[in-house]
């Protein structure tokens, strides 16, 4: 009732409000929901190592002073074939495109730890960007903490931007000096400098520093030589529209305005991105009350968190066939939330997997989901899960 009231009420906006609508797109499992949760400061979107955890577009709301960021967390861009394989709704194919129509800025998230997909943007992402070239876009390299060789980031930036950032050509200069006697990995700095004639006004820098992976040994007694890498820009032609024929030969997108490198799961450099987003907000009316954190209903949050656990603990395609039916949603005598949900599966063998030996699997899912719900709703939650075969 409180959530419904806040969503119905007029926003309590200040005299000169600013707003920015942000679409986060990328391949499935790139970390879009994890980044959204970090920006919000609380977990309201489901997160799993399996693909297609997010099933529909949902909005997160960050309100800071006179500025409101509206985060459009969308399903991973996928193809009709993959959608059919994972029993995905039609909305999974259309929601990311719909979110782009309402966005003022788009974040393109790339998982740099996945060596199979990190060297190029997917066909679906490129099509989405080319359809809306007028919307400013920012490249976000996620999971950089999992990279042992940080110089790979230089190669990825060059490939994913087609060598152009903010309308200027990138020129890679690398001065790595390998020293076999030292296992220390130097920091990596990527700088986008202004053309010579503009330097009087100060250089424009991305200044994204990816530190050497924590825990790596550092031999201070060895002969350590300074090493640095930079991406220097030269003037290039401005962004243009790209057709399907152009996209076939492209690995990256040459119209990104900025590049950020972060580790969303650990929260590293997320604040840097958040500050940038707040600075990009333009004058405009707020959409939500300042106390609203998400456009989702409490029941939707509950369903998403339980599904997250199903994806985590059930093998292969099994969790994608589970139907969730909420049988009870009541407030208990002490203000606790009482929830009973029935999980319907297509086969008896799936039911046995979900229950687990001695009921261990279903008990663990209920315990972890209940704890997450307590953290979201800030009250005691008693969650009971039942399992049945679909009739």
TrEMBL record:
GO cellular component: mitochondrial inner membrane; mitochondrial matrix
G5, as annotated region: 262-264
Domain of life: Eukaryota
Region of interest (G2), residue spans: 52-56
PROSITE patterns: G_ERA
Keywords: GTP-binding, Membrane, Mitochondrion, Mitochondrion inner membrane, Nucleotide-binding, Ribosome biogenesis, RNA-binding, rRNA-binding, Transit peptide
Residue ranges of the region described as G4: 142-145
Region (Disordered): 177-238
Membrane topology value: Peripheral membrane protein
Biased composition (Polar residues): 177-195, 208-220
GO biological process, one term: ribosomal small subunit assembly
Subcellular location field: Mitochondrion inner membrane; Mitochondrion matrix
Domain Era-type G as annotated: residue spans: 18-284
Region: G3, residue numbers: 73-76
Gene Ontology MF terms: GTP binding; ribosomal small subunit binding; rRNA binding
Region (G1): 26-33
InterPro entries registered for this protein in UniProt: G_ERA_dom, GTP-bd, GTPase_Era-like, KH_dom-like_a/b, KH_dom_type_2, P-loop_NTPase, Small_GTP-bd
Family recorded in the similarity comment: Belongs to the TRAFAC class TrmE-Era-EngA-EngB-Septin-like GTPase superfamily. Era GTPase family.
Protein role: Probable GTPase that plays a role in the mitochondrial ribosomal small subunit assembly. Specifically binds the 12S mitochondrial rRNA (12S mt-rRNA) to a 33 nucleotide section delineating the 3' terminal stem-loop region. May act as a chaperone that protects the 12S mt-rRNA on the 28S mitoribosomal subunit during ribosomal small subunit assembly.
Protein name: GTPase Era, mitochondrial
Native organism taxonomy: Eukaryota, Metazoa, Chordata, Craniata, Vertebrata
